[in-house]
Design a protein that fits this description.
With 364 residues, the protein is α/β, with parallel strands linked by helices. It has two domains: 115 residues, 2-Layer Sandwich (Enolase-like, domain 1), CATH 3.30.390.10; 229 residues, Enolase-like C-terminal domain (TIM Barrel), CATH 3.20.20.120. The chain is 38% helix and 20% strand. The chain has 13 helices and twelve strands. The chain is globular and about 60 Å long. The protein starts with 7 loop residues before the first strand and ends with a helix. 50% of the residues are buried.
Length: 364
């Protein structure tokens, strides 16, 4: 039976920390394991929506969890209507700011609400939004960190083999240019000459250093330069995008569609890649996709491959899905990979359910 209306009853929010197969070594830190916040949105009609957040820092969960609980308590008894919930949630937090923890909490609830609505309609989220299920082109972003270049060839080969990938993400921004060049050469040796290399600096360079380094790497045939400088230095990105031959990618740190809109207007990047936790969940993504679609800018994803894959199926300028297996330990049935594509399953909602034994094991 398809339900036309759901009402929010309560939420359960659980922090977990899962081990990483390959520790993260980047400009933003060293991570041996990965924090996740699991959100279960309960409705009076018995439908439960799921979502999760990846807040990077374990200690941040102590602030984000109560923010989600407070927003849900304020919305108790209200219809599960994500666009209304987004406006209501952000509006209630104007006095403490529209970005940071405020928007993260709103985003987590938003994704769970969309999952519940699609489940109530007995449709996969992609179908509920007017699209279809199927494959989404993906690149593997689960390794190739700022580790010694002599270890990267074997790792690159293993990453390609994990799903027949035709694209890999490599971290750059080492102290010496020669080390970045050695890393690129090693990855190409291990992955093969036809695999695309998406390269990420994790905002690790000043504008001056970025101009020097990126110009020096501009003839390496890299697929994109991602976030060489701090995400909000829009004039700096305009200069980089104007001067470099290699496309410039940014957007994972944009809080809400408005900042993405400003970056698009300024010509700050060739590609955009919103993050669901920051852009505003599914509702924020749909608004951002309308902006990039109107501008003709290819749009990729950042983290959350299961949820993002559904959205790529309905995004006009869908580009690449970033794939990691970091949430797999707590999922009852991870999505399948085939020939470099993530397969969106024909399951109601986003298609994710928790492995409760693993959740109990990794609970904080």
């Amino acid at each position: 039976m398809i339900r036309s209306q759901l009402t929010l009853k309560s939420v359960r929010v659980r922090p977990v920390v899962v081990p990483l197969k390959r520790p993260i070594v980047s400009k933003v830190g060293l991570y041996q394991d990965w924090p996740l916040i699991l959100i279960d949105l309960y409705t009076n009609e018995g439908v439960v929506g799921h979502s999760y957040l990846e807040p990077y820092l374990k200690q941040s969960m102590r602030y984000i969890v109560p923010a989600i609980e407070d927003l849900a308590e304020a919305a108790k008894g209200q219809p599960v209507a994500p666009f209304d919930g987004f406006r209501r949630g952000i509006g209630s937090l104007h006095l403490v700011g529209r970005e940071g923890v405020s928007l993260i909490a709103v985003s987590g609830l938003d994704m769970a609400a969309w999952d519940a609505l699609a489940k109530a309609a007995e449709m996969p989220l992609a179908v509920f939004l007017g699209g279809t299920v199927g494959p989404v082109p993906a690149y593997n972003s689960s390794g190739l960190w700022l580790t010694p270049p002599d270890k990267l060839a074997a790792e690159a080969a293993a990453l390609v083999a994990e799903g027949g990938f035709t694209g890999l993400k490599l971290k750059l921004g080492r102290e010496r240019l020669t080390d970045d060049l050695a890393a690129i050469a090693a990855v190409r040796d291990g992955a093969g000459p036809t695999v695309k290399l998406m390269c990420d600096f994790n905002q690790g360079l000043s504008l001056g250093d970025a101009l020097v380094r990126c110009h020096a790497l501009d003839d390496q045939g890299l697929y994109w330069f991602e976030e060489p400088i701090t995400y909000d230095n829009i004039p700096g990105y305009v200069q980089l995008a104007r001067e470099l031959k290699t496309p410039v990618q940014l957007g994972e740190n944009f809080y809400g569609p408005r900042l993405l809109y400003q970056a698009v207007l300024a010509g700050a990047g060739d590609y955009m890649m919103p993050d669901l936790m920051r852009i505003g969940g599914v509702s924020g993504w749909l608004r951002a996709a309308a902006i990039t679609g109107a501008a003709g800018i290819p749009m990729s994803t950042h983290l959350y491959p299961e949820i993002a894959a559904h959205l790529m199926r309905v995004t006009d300028t869908a580009h690449w899905l970033e794939w990691q297996d970091w949430a797999d330990p707590i999922l009852s049935e991870p999505f399948q990979l085939k020939d470099g594509h993530l397969m969106v399953p024909d399951r109601p909602g986003q298609g994710i359910e928790w492995n409760e034994k693993s959740v109990a094991r990794f609970a904080q």
